[in-house]
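Here is my example:
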Amino acid sequence: MENRKALIIVTNHSDFEHPEAEPTGLWLSEFTHFYDEFEAAGIPMEIASIKGGKIPLDNRGLKGIMLDKETKKRYEDSEFMSLLENTKSLSDIDAKEYDVLFFAGGHGAMWDFANNDKLNSLTRYMYENGKIISAVCHGVAALQNVKLSNGEYLIKGKRGTCFPYFDESLAGVKKYVPYNLQKTLKSRGMKYSKAFLPLSGHAVADGRLITGQNPNSTTKTAKKVLEVLKKL
């Protein structure tokens, strides 16, 4: 695993664009759990976002049972949290430096990950050059509009997952989300699957495309990425 490097993309978007909704942003555990696995494997990481700068956090992920022990430890570590204070912007990224591209989730990703040409180009370049593309929960929104050089959607015919539309009701935000991500991915040709029980962990690897269903799937997703990375 020497000379490997991962790029983690996080959202800059901080609201549901609805007057009744609470602010949103990055779901912290989807960042920390991936980071934990890669740090343990000795793989360096860089953090970037569309615009760069400070990353907004979804407060719902920082309360009660949503804030697991490992993430709480990271959240209370000011040195670690400084990683999200001044992220690189996409314009500062050289795709050739990385072997893994990972999109962390949080509802904010449904906005700024979805239709960004630079992000789509970065994803296409890395996938077509033998790199691993991974995303979890709403971070999978980054994959919905990525087309390969042959004009086909990257996710067409590939197995994958994302946060299920049904679960948006459980999260209390179904009326605020801008679109049905699950439906969109399926319309692009993804062979979508999800766990039998809501909020259960579920991660899917299809070659170098690895996706996770929800925050509880992040560790599984990271482990699958590491398994594939060992084979490259």
Remarks:
- The radius of gyration is 16 Å.
- The beta strands are 6-10, 45-49, 88-89, 100-103, 132-136, 159-160, 191-192, 203-206, 209-212.
- The mean pLDDT is 97.
